Amino acid sequence: MAISYDIAARLVQTLLSSRMVKVSDELRFAGQDLPAPVTVQIPTSVGSMRCDVYRPDPALAGETPPVFVNFHGSGYVVRHPEQDDHICRHLAAEAGCVVLNIDYWTAPQHRFPTAPIQAYEACEWAVNYGAEHGWDGGRLAVGGHSAGGALATGVCRTARERGTFTPLLQIIDYAPLDLAADPATKRARTRRPLISPTLSRIFTGTYLPDASRRRDPLASPGLATDLAGLPPALVITAEYDLLRDEGDAYAESLAAAGVPVVHRMVEGVDHFFTHNGPPETVRPVFDLMAEQLRAAFAVQV
Q: Domain spans of the chain?
């Protein structure tokens, strides 16, 4: 079955690649006047990976700004970090932080747990080498969209377990948080959701063919019960998204575990709305992300 999923995933890569990187100018808000990002290489235990570094206006951000590590959406299959350029620019400008946009490796070439390993080690690198690159590694937040949001939760979990660093905030944006459940059992509130059960099966079957491992908290953070001590979270879900219920439930579980949570369910939109949604809906969400980042970075650590 993994072989057929791999073939389907490569077809999805081909079909979606050109669409995912084209974001309407209407969704490009703040930060469009910032310089082009600078590319660096981050060493990890599974290989060196690319990272685009967005820097805020130094006159507004100060000499050593905080840092936000961003993980793009992909279904763990589509590898196009540049799709988040408009988000990275907005957050750099509005939150006054350096933004690291991570080009983590995807399936079928690189299956679970490669992406979670790279995500954590990218953040560890950002903490340890911030002074060399001009940001404050002691003031780090992490977040992402779709699969990238799930990777952000894994960073926070691994950092807590190892006691290495503590992100000030995690942004979890319409993330897949339960890979163990049959996608057919998940409820979408529209007849043709962007993430259909079939597409969900392709993504999961390609990324993690071994079904017995899909309950691993790094694969399905929504199934974890030991959530106490994780960083404050901004959880964003979309009304029509097949993944909405697991995101809503995760926000409730974090709050029940004593984690400070801001949860925003965005009405009238589906998965990936931050890249194709109406500007009047998207702009408030980007502003909320920036607001939460500013508040987190203002906390004395």
A: 2-298
What is the Cα–Cα distance from 204 to 206, expressed in whole angstroms?
A: 5
Annotated catalytic residue 241:
yes
Query: Of the listed 86, 145, 146, 245, which one is catalytic?
Result: 146
- Pairing type for strands 98-102 and 67-71 reads parallel
Q: Is 146 a catalytic residue?
A: yes
Extract the residue ranges of the chain whose pLDDT is less than 50.
none
- Which sign does the torsion angle of CA 121, 52, 49, 110 carry? positive
Per CATH, the number for 2-298 is: 3.40.50.1820
CA distances from 143 to 12, 74, 187, 268 (A): 24, 14, 25, 23
The yes-or-no answer on residue 145 being catalytic is no
CA–CA separation, 43 and 278 (whole Å): 38
Burial class (CB in 10 A: 0-12, 13-18, 19+), 11: exposed
> What whole-number distance in Å separates Cα of residue 165 and Cα of residue 162?
8
Confidence at residue 300, expressed as pLDDT on a 0 to 100 scale:
56
Question: For the chain, how many residues are written?
Answer: 301
Predicted pLDDT of residue 58 = 87
The confidence score (pLDDT) of residue 5 equals: 87
Tell me, what's the pLDDT at 2? 59
What's the CA gap between 286 and 27, in Å, rounded? 10
